[in-house]
Amino acid sequence: MTQVAEHHHADVSGGWLRAATFGAMDGLVTNIALIAGVGGGGADRPTLVLTGVAGLVAGAISMAIGEYTSVRTQNEQVAAELAKELRELRRNPEGEADELVAIWVARGLPEPLAREVADVLKQHPDQALRVHAQEELGVVPDELPSPWTAAGSSFVCFAVGALIPLLTYLLGFDSLWLALAVGGIGLFAAGAVVGRFTARPWWLGGLRQLVLGALAALATYGIGVLIGV
C-alpha cells in the first residue's frame, strides 16, 4: 500500500510569525535609533536607560495594539465577504458553480472535470463556501490568524528586541558604541533567523537587517549631534 508522504509548511497566514518578525525588528531598530540619537546628543547613562525603557514599553504596547486592530479588522472583512459569498451560494448556486468552472478551466483543468467537481460541491454548501473562499478571496475560513496571537507575539518580540541595545547599560557599562555594537549583533542575528524561515541565505538576511538598522542609527545620531542635549 502506498504511503502518503507527510510534510508541514511554515506559517504563511500572517499569524504569529509575521507579527513576531516585525515586532523583533522594530524593537531593535527603534531602540538602537533612540539610543544613538540621545547618546549622540551627549545624554548620560541614566537618561539613555530611561529613554530606552520608555521606548521599549511604549513601542511594545503600540505594536500589540496595532497588530490586534489590524488582524481583527482583516478577519472582520473576511467574515463579511464570506457571508456575502454564502448568500450568493444559496441564491444562485448555478452561477457560483460556473464561476468555479471558469477559474479552474483558466488554470488548465479540463472543463468536464471542472464541471463535475463544481456540481458535486453544490450538494455540500460548507465545502463549497470553503472552496470559493480559497479560489476567490485567497483565504481558508477556518485558518484565519488570531488577533490575540498576533498582538502577544508582537508585544513580546518587540520588548525582547528593544531590550538588546540596553543590555550593556543595564549591566553597568557606559559606552554608546558598545551598546550600538550589541544592537548590531542583535539585528544581524534576527535577520539571519528570518532568512532561515524564508530559505534566503542566512548571512544575506542578517546583513540586510544590519545595514538598515545602521542607517537608522546613523540618521538619529546625526540629529542628536546637531541638536545636542
Automatic annotation (TrEMBL):
Keywords: Membrane, Transmembrane, Transmembrane helix. It is a multi-pass membrane protein. Pfam families: VIT1. The keyword rRNA-binding does not apply. InterPro entries: Ccc1_fam. The chain crosses the membrane at residues 150-171, 177-198, 210-228. It is found in: Endomembrane system. Its main location: membrane. It comes from the Bacteria. The keyword Transmembrane helix applies. This is VIT1/CCC1 transporter family protein. It comes from Paractinoplanes lichenicola.
